[in-house]
Amino acid sequence: MSKEKLTKRTVDKLTGHDKDYIVFDNDLPGFGVRVMPSGHRYFLIQYRRHGRTRRVMIGQFGPITADEARREALRMLGSVRGGDGDPAAARDRERQSMTMVALGERFLKEHVAVRCKPSTQYEYKRSVELFLNPFFGKQRVRSVTTADVAELHGGMSHIPYQANRTVGVLSKMMNLAEVWGVRDKHSNPCDDIAHFPERKRTRFLSGNELARLGKVLIQVEQDGSESAYAVAAFRLLLLTGCRLSEIQKLKWAWVDLDEMEIRLPDSKTGAKSVYLGDAAIDVFKKVPKVAGNPFVIVGKKPGAYLTDMQRPWRRIRKLAELDDVRIHDLRHTFASGGLVVGEGLSMIGKLLGHTQIQTTARYAHLANDPIKAAATKIASRLAEALG
To answer: CA-CA distances (angstroms) from residue 333 to 3, 182, 237?
Structure first.
């Protein structure tokens, strides 16, 4: 700790070290600024109350100025010395009285909006607003118990996947509540909740199913009953193994047909390249470009991409008699096709953009299909010889 006059100029000069440190003002005792290793600086006051040293943060340098922090420190320290108040106790009471709704709002604003991708933001917001807020309401954060979470989770047994996701979101909120001083450390009530079993669904289209789908895609494209861009999107999903959002929001600037590559600046696993086969390139060449629209899959609004892919897919899969096939199953089919032609799991993982081999391992059983076919051929030949 050191002392000097805290002004905009002096605070500007303070830099981060290996550990955080505090510089106190030499004019106003108890007024200081904490400098974090990151270089962020936070104004605070320090005082003693009932034999204990207490510290209360005022705010971050930048959003508030040194002069504003000094005035607030003067007010708070004056209250302490006059015996009229204890800012730390008031802060603790406020934290302890926070409701679950208020925690959800802070979670979405300070964590989700800053750190999560848009698709994750949507899912977290949905869990908070549709499931957590109606269940907990204005219950105090500190009063939430494991029994409460078990009741929430058990009441969603008819939607087990959503139940598990919701408890996962709640667990993250509770961890942050500990960081923010709203709950005691190591008190997460979600820790002992056993999730419902989940079976990863892996659906692949057979050769006959692919033929039916191909026939319907040609039909709806020719009669104009579906957008040519929607049809192109479904073909590209099947021929590239991309995720829906990667094709739906794809821009021409990211497509390099000469290098047979898509360079995505961002994806579920970060920036990645998608390598294109000849069939995928043929699809790209037939997609009409629209002046002023940067997207490959053009939507109805000027300059926008096609936002609704589910409704055309439901109509197409009904015509093809593939009612149980989801759009994501086209990605699975791309993976299964690679294994059937003899590509290994490592190569399939690279093509799909998986960061962990465990993610690709769900397709492992398909690698045995050629072996099974050979076994059938040999056994049939021997059985025929046996008569």
So the answer is: 67, 47, 10
The model's pTM: 0.53
Query: Distance (Å, rounded) from C-alpha 49 to C-alpha 331?
Result: 63
Structure tokens at 43: 């104004």
291-312 pLDDT per residue, tens: 999 999 999 899 999 999 999 9
Pairing of strands 255-256, 261-264: antiparallel
- Which class would CATH give 2-87? alpha beta
Say yes or no: domain 100-179 is CATH 1.10.150: yes
Q: How far is Cα 67 from Cα 304, in angstroms, rounded to an integer?
A: 47
pLDDT in tens, 11-33: 999 999 999 999 999 889 889 99
Q: The domain 207-372 belongs to what CATH superfamily?
A: Intergrase catalytic core (1.10.443.10)
Contact 57, 42 (CB under 8 A): yes
Pick from 59, 149, 150, 57: which is nearest to 100 by CA? 149
What is the C-alpha separation between 387 and 87, in angstroms, rounded?
95
